[in-house]
Prior knowledge:
- This protein is α/β, with parallel strands linked by helices.
- The chain has 3 domains: 5-277, Alpha-Beta Barrel (TIM Barrel), CATH 3.20.20.70; 295-367, no CATH class; 394-450, Double Stranded RNA Binding Domain.
- Helices cover 38% and strands 20% of the residues.
- The protein contains 17 helices and 16 strands.
- The protein has helices spanning 24-37, 50-61, 86-93, 107-114, 118-134, 146-152, 154-167, 183-193, 212-221, 243-252, 267-277, 299-307, 335-343, 353-367, 376-386, 435-447, 499-517, and strands at residues 5-8, 41-45, 68-74, 98-104, 138-144, 171-176, 200-205, 226-229, 295-296, 325-326, 395-405, 411-421, 424-432, 458-466, 477-484, 489-496.
- An 8-stranded parallel beta barrel has the order 1-2-3-4-5-6-7-8, surrounded by 8 helices. Strands 11-12-13 form a 3-stranded antiparallel beta sheet, with helices on one face.
- The longest helix has 19 residues, at 499-517.
Amino acid sequence: xxxxxxxxxxxxxxxxxxxxxxxxxxxxxxxxxxxxxxxxxxxxxxxxxxxxxxxxxxxxxxxxxxxxxxxxxxxxxxxxxxxxxxxxxxxxxxxxxxxxxxxxxxxxxxxxxxxxxxxxxxxxxxxxxxxxxxxxxxxxxxxxxxxxxxxxxxxxxxxxxxxxxxxxxxxxxxxxxxxxxxxxxxxxxxxxxxxxxxxxxxxxxxxxxxxxxxxxxxxxxxxxxxxxxxxxxxxxxxxxxxxxxxxxxxxxxxxxxxxxxxxxxxxxxxxxxxxxxxxxxxxxxxxxxxxxxxxxxxxxxxxxxxxxxxxxxxxxxxxxxxxxxxxxxxxxxxxxxxxxxxxxxxxxxxxxxxxxxxxxxxxxxxxxxxxxxxxxxxxxxxxxxxxxxxxxxxxxxxxxxxxxxxxxxxxxxxxxxxxxxxxxxxxxxxxxxxxxxxxxxxxxxxxxxxxxxxxxxxxxxxxxxxxxxxxxxxxxxxxxxxxxxxxxxxxxxxxxxxxxxxxxxxxxxxxxxxxxxxxxx
Length: 521
């Protein structure tokens, strides 16, 4: 079976993503998680950088279990021998078995940026690689701008790869640094140069044309056995080749060995872990691992799926640790309602008038702006109310929210609330970081003596969507609240022209769902 080496550069190339700034511990945590996943090479960064130097120190003291830790750097400076170059010395000081060096391939860069001759550049590549090999290092040589360089000067671009190979580089990696090479063009170039190189060949693709994954896969199908990329496709500009997608394709479509079979089911979990540590939102439509990768909304699709999942799913989501979701909406018909009802221990069938009633209610609410795709808590309450199998745990008598700006610029929010619980009126107030937080605090303060279980829940996310942006400040809004306790997480929704009222609706559903699931009487 063909085997491909996976080289992860999330901690360096991925760190160049707008909005990402890894701490030392972030890098260490991600490196260890990727090591557990079975990635072969993990590039931790530039040893010349003090932060990265600390990462190398920590990972030397407690090494990775199976992956090769890689130090990254450039070829030596123009005016220094490799043995005297400070950057090369820092690479050696990292004490990794494997090092990656990038060098210039494109004559444009050599002549107009470095302002040296083409032969001088070849000497720099040879001296750098040979010296590192003489120091006992396995050298991966990244041919920067290889495809652009080849299109400009084919003979010279190939020479840079050959000189690195001659100096002892164990891997020659073709980099589409600007991400502007189309797949057919890339394959043509690989076909022309691969027969002339004996080293293991690699691909490093960027996603500026949306082709990074496709280019990487086609490169593998055309003889390349070393693939570089980042988890979740993080990287400068439009990102790098997404290793999560590449792993999914190699394992499920091409049966090419890259990570252990038993680790494939961890793919979604590791992808989400990396996004969480990176403080980046997970892309819902990300192949294989996104929350929407195996979501079905259309009624025809759902009906077919229930008969045979292959009708609208290219793999079983469990293979990659993901799961299937069927969405209840005006587009999906009765079947998702029936399936959701089963999740709530309620029996419905297609012919039941109750099912038709719930579908009509759902359509009416969605027309007003409600969406229940991420609000299972509100949807369960909706169904049980429609079936008259639900009792309210409290009733509102009134609430008032006051937002006050102080002379010193501070803004305070206070909510005053009156509710009736089991025939008893409770009147209380609470402050908060904002009006919604104050309202949430006041509501749970009023209820906690009756329902102590509410002390174990909290709001974890709050989103507002304007329903008609053209209407300006008079437009309606949809508020989506995510809540969680020690074991579960659930979503609730509210819609109104008043953001406080929409928030109140979602808050009430959030609290009532908590009491419902805890079977509070």
